[in-house]
Design goal:
The protein is of the alpha/beta class. Helix content is 50%, strand content 21%. It has a five-stranded parallel sheet, sandwiched between helices. Strand 1, helix 1 and strand 2 (32-40) form a beta-alpha-beta unit. The longest helix is centred in the middle third of the chain and has 25 residues, at 53-77. The model has no long low-confidence stretch (mean pLDDT 88).
Protein backbone atom coordinates (compact mmCIF):
# COMPACT_ATOMS: atom_id res chain seq x y z
CA UNK A 1 0.00 0.00 0.00
CA UNK A 2 2.79 2.44 0.91
CA UNK A 3 6.03 2.49 -1.05
CA UNK A 4 7.27 6.02 -0.30
CA UNK A 5 6.38 7.88 2.87
CA UNK A 6 7.20 11.56 3.34
CA UNK A 7 7.89 12.90 6.82
CA UNK A 8 8.53 16.65 6.90
CA UNK A 9 10.36 17.73 10.05
CA UNK A 10 11.50 20.95 11.64
CA UNK A 11 13.13 19.19 14.58
CA UNK A 12 10.33 20.10 17.01
CA UNK A 13 8.95 17.69 19.60
CA UNK A 14 5.70 17.36 17.67
CA UNK A 15 7.56 16.53 14.45
CA UNK A 16 9.56 13.97 16.41
CA UNK A 17 6.36 12.12 17.32
CA UNK A 18 5.43 12.11 13.63
CA UNK A 19 8.86 10.67 12.79
CA UNK A 20 8.23 7.76 15.18
CA UNK A 21 4.95 6.99 13.41
CA UNK A 22 6.48 7.37 9.95
CA UNK A 23 9.35 5.01 10.73
CA UNK A 24 6.95 2.45 12.18
CA UNK A 25 4.67 2.58 9.13
CA UNK A 26 7.64 2.41 6.74
CA UNK A 27 8.99 -0.59 8.63
CA UNK A 28 5.63 -2.38 8.47
CA UNK A 29 5.21 -1.80 4.74
CA UNK A 30 8.84 -2.04 3.67
CA UNK A 31 8.51 1.52 2.39
CA UNK A 32 11.20 4.05 1.65
CA UNK A 33 11.13 7.02 4.02
CA UNK A 34 11.63 10.51 2.60
CA UNK A 35 12.78 12.93 5.29
CA UNK A 36 12.30 16.57 4.34
CA UNK A 37 13.14 19.78 6.14
CA UNK A 38 12.23 23.14 4.66
CA UNK A 39 14.33 26.27 5.12
CA UNK A 40 11.46 28.74 5.35
CA UNK A 41 12.23 31.59 2.97
CA UNK A 42 10.16 33.92 5.15
CA UNK A 43 12.58 33.37 8.05
CA UNK A 44 15.51 34.27 5.82
CA UNK A 45 13.91 37.43 4.43
CA UNK A 46 12.95 38.74 7.90
CA UNK A 47 16.38 38.50 9.45
CA UNK A 48 17.99 41.23 11.53
CA UNK A 49 19.78 43.95 9.51
CA UNK A 50 23.12 43.13 11.17
CA UNK A 51 22.98 39.58 9.82
CA UNK A 52 23.00 38.95 6.11
CA UNK A 53 20.22 36.82 4.62
CA UNK A 54 22.91 34.47 3.33
CA UNK A 55 24.20 33.90 6.88
CA UNK A 56 20.69 33.24 8.16
CA UNK A 57 19.97 30.82 5.33
CA UNK A 58 23.27 29.00 5.87
CA UNK A 59 22.58 28.62 9.60
CA UNK A 60 19.02 27.40 8.99
CA UNK A 61 20.21 24.99 6.28
CA UNK A 62 22.91 23.52 8.56
CA UNK A 63 20.34 22.96 11.31
CA UNK A 64 17.88 21.38 8.84
CA UNK A 65 20.59 19.07 7.49
CA UNK A 66 21.42 17.97 11.02
CA UNK A 67 17.74 17.26 11.71
CA UNK A 68 17.17 15.14 8.58
CA UNK A 69 20.40 13.20 9.11
CA UNK A 70 19.37 12.37 12.68
CA UNK A 71 16.03 11.05 11.41
CA UNK A 72 17.79 9.03 8.68
CA UNK A 73 19.99 7.47 11.38
CA UNK A 74 16.91 6.51 13.41
CA UNK A 75 15.33 5.01 10.30
CA UNK A 76 18.48 3.02 9.53
CA UNK A 77 18.47 1.66 13.09
CA UNK A 78 14.95 0.36 12.37
CA UNK A 79 16.03 -1.14 9.04
CA UNK A 80 14.22 1.50 7.00
CA UNK A 81 15.82 3.03 3.92
CA UNK A 82 15.74 6.84 4.08
CA UNK A 83 16.20 9.60 1.53
CA UNK A 84 16.94 13.06 2.94
CA UNK A 85 16.27 16.48 1.49
CA UNK A 86 16.57 20.08 2.60
CA UNK A 87 14.69 22.53 0.40
CA UNK A 88 14.17 26.29 0.55
CA UNK A 89 10.72 27.86 0.23
CA UNK A 90 7.33 28.16 1.87
CA UNK A 91 6.94 24.95 3.93
CA UNK A 92 3.48 23.80 2.83
CA UNK A 93 4.26 24.55 -0.83
CA UNK A 94 7.49 22.58 -0.64
CA UNK A 95 5.89 19.62 1.19
CA UNK A 96 3.01 19.31 -1.29
CA UNK A 97 5.31 19.67 -4.32
CA UNK A 98 7.88 17.24 -2.91
CA UNK A 99 5.21 14.59 -2.32
CA UNK A 100 4.04 14.87 -5.95
CA UNK A 101 7.53 15.07 -7.47
CA UNK A 102 8.70 11.99 -5.56
CA UNK A 103 5.53 9.89 -5.93
CA UNK A 104 4.99 9.68 -2.17
CA UNK A 105 1.99 7.62 -1.09
CA UNK A 106 1.58 9.15 2.37
CA UNK A 107 2.65 12.25 4.29
CA UNK A 108 3.12 11.88 8.05
CA UNK A 109 3.52 15.15 9.92
CA UNK A 110 3.07 16.73 13.32
CA UNK A 111 0.06 18.89 13.98
CA UNK A 112 2.37 21.86 14.49
CA UNK A 113 5.99 22.76 14.95
CA UNK A 114 5.90 26.45 15.75
CA UNK A 115 4.52 27.69 19.01
CA UNK A 116 3.10 30.88 20.44
CA UNK A 117 2.10 34.01 18.55
CA UNK A 118 4.20 33.15 15.48
CA UNK A 119 2.12 30.01 14.86
CA UNK A 120 -1.17 31.90 15.05
CA UNK A 121 0.00 34.70 12.78
CA UNK A 122 1.39 32.39 10.10
CA UNK A 123 -1.28 29.70 10.35
CA UNK A 124 -0.66 26.00 10.34
CA UNK A 125 1.59 24.39 7.76
CA UNK A 126 -0.13 21.10 8.52
CA UNK A 127 -3.62 22.51 7.92
CA UNK A 128 -2.60 23.96 4.57
CA UNK A 129 -0.85 20.72 3.60
CA UNK A 130 -3.93 18.64 4.45
CA UNK A 131 -6.15 20.91 2.34
CA UNK A 132 -3.83 20.88 -0.68
CA UNK A 133 -2.25 17.43 -0.72
CA UNK A 134 -3.11 14.94 -3.45
CA UNK A 135 -2.06 12.07 -1.14
CA UNK A 136 -3.30 11.11 2.33
CA UNK A 137 -1.85 13.06 5.26
CA UNK A 138 -1.56 11.42 8.66
CA UNK A 139 -1.34 14.10 11.36
CA UNK A 140 0.27 13.28 14.66
CA UNK A 141 -0.30 15.27 17.84
CA UNK A 142 2.44 15.35 20.45
CA UNK A 143 1.38 13.34 23.48
CA UNK A 144 1.63 16.26 25.92
CA UNK A 145 -0.62 18.63 23.93
Amino acid sequence: MYERILVPTDGSDCADYAVEHAIDIAEQYGAELHVLSVVDSRDVSHSAPAISPQQVEETLRERAESVVEAVADRAADAGVEAVTAVEPGIPDDVVVDYAVDNDCDLIVMGTHGRTGLERYLLGSVTERTVRRSAVPVLTVRASDE
